[in-house]
Amino acid sequence: MKIASYDILIIGGGPAGLMAARKAAQKGVKTLLVEKEKQFGLKVCGEAVSADTLAEAEMSPSESFICSREIDRVLVYAPQEEKNVEISAESIGYSGGYILNKMTFLKEMGRLALQEGTEIWMGALANQLVRHDGLFRCTIGTAKGDQLVEAKVVIGCGGVSSLVARRFFNRQGYRLIPCLQYQMANCHLVDQRSLEIFLGNNVAPGAYVWIFPKGEGLANVGIGTQGVPARRCLDRFIETHPQRFKKARVLSMGAAPVPIGGQIEELVQDGLMLCGDTAGQVIPLTGAGIHSGIAAGRIAGQVAAEALLEGNISREKLSAYPEQFNKVWGQCIIGSFKVQQLIVKLSDQELNQLADIFTGQDIVDLANGFNLTRVGIKLLKYPAFAAKIGRALIGKQSGIR
């Protein structure tokens, strides 16, 4: 079998893989990205991103991949739904966000990667990966039959079932929850500029329900759950909200596991790197991973290319990638994971009480693992939460185990 040789092989064409490919190719190294699906963006996703996410991707907002007007508000509902906390972009100094058409967004990311010189194979399944004489050999199934590829560096961006992770890495503590989403028409929405989040042990145990508007009555209506069937919970939510969904109908359905266990400990080995969902680089409390995945891919692609150009692809050299990523995202992921572990233990009554205490800024900080000490000190004023959450948050932020 003829061998095709590359400097970098990237397995997986999600946000992390496409960004890694683009940034590596910019450095002039020969880069191949393989994606098992025949089109990008098939994995279920709420599709909400911040304006900062597009900036991270070095892309400007475009009608070609943005579905709705700018999002400038999030409504977080307690189990007692008349209690909700509003997070307005203006109140937290936030630049707002958008609902994507993820397929066209990733297609545009792919176009930009191609423009820089990346070679992309679609419908190409990496099914064997071995070390061979200091290189990596990967057998890739394509419509033309198996193809053998040789590369100096392999970056695994293939999601939860990543071949690279399964073959070479120990992902101890890597935890997944099921997520299910309907795209629905004729929904009665609060407005087209607001995201809605619904909490509660009878709504979505261990996670939440989301309603994200896509314009003209269309919405992504989805759920994540722990320990119970996601579809049963989502259907029950829709049935118990006839004012929202009486005339609605499901246009499509998708499901996917989402990692919520935090970033795995080992991200690099000699000639190997992991990015995105594969590496657990998802904000655990929210399940958001597009922004962090793009950030990881950008850094990994640059570091890998520079290492190749210097002739040193050792673990030590490639460790510049997690070092740089963790400066911005490490504490965020760790903090959010620890908050998630606390919040999931709360009763519906306690969640209702927190809705009376928390501001939008408090929720944003908790979700992203920021300023936990500040929120913890605030909760010390409330006996019901002082020991259960308040002191724990203060300890978590200071690094106390």
The level 1 CATH classification of the largest domain is Alpha Beta
Helix vs. strand class: alpha/beta
Amount of beta strand: 25-35%
The quaternary organization reads as single chain
Number of helices: 13
Total strands: the figure is 17
Helix amount: 25-40%
Element-by-element helix/strand order: EHEEHEEEHEEEEHEEEEHHEEEHHHHHHH
Overall shape: globular
For the biggest sheet, the summary is: 8 strands, mixed
Mean pLDDT: 94
Low-confidence segments: none
CATH topology of the largest domain: FAD/NAD(P)-binding domain
Identify the CATH architecture of the largest domain: 3-Layer(bba) Sandwich
What is the alpha-carbon Rg in Å? Answer: 22 Å
Could you characterize the architecture of this molecule?
The protein is α/β, with parallel strands linked by helices and 401 residues long. The protein has three domains: 3-45 and 102-170 and 264-318, FAD/NAD(P)-binding domain (3-Layer(bba) Sandwich), CATH 3.50.50; 70-98 and 176-259, D-Amino Acid Oxidase, subunit A, domain 2 (D-Amino Acid Oxidase, Chain A, domain 2, 2-Layer Sandwich), CATH 3.30.9; 335-398, no CATH class. The protein is 36% helix and 27% strand. Strands 1, 2, 7, 8, 9, 10, 16 and 17 form an eight-stranded mixed beta sheet that branches. Strands 5-4-12-13-14-11-15 form a seven-stranded mixed beta sheet, with helices on both faces.
